[in-house]
Amino acid sequence: MSDRAAIDINELMAFSQAIARQAGAMMLAELQTQGGPERSYKHAGQEMVTEADIKVDRLICDAIRDRYPDHQILAEESAPDINQLSSITSPLWIIDPIDGTVNYAHDHGHSAVSIAWLSQGRVISAVVYNPFSDEMFHAIEGQGAFINDSGIQVGEKQDLRRALFATGFPYIKEDMQRLVRRLDVMLQHCADLRRIGSAALDICWVAMGRLDIYYENLSVWDFAAAQLIAREAGAQYGHFLPVPEGVSPVLHNKNILVANPVLFEKARELLAEIG
Question: Looking at the whole model, is its pTM more than 0.85?
Answer without folding.
Answer: yes
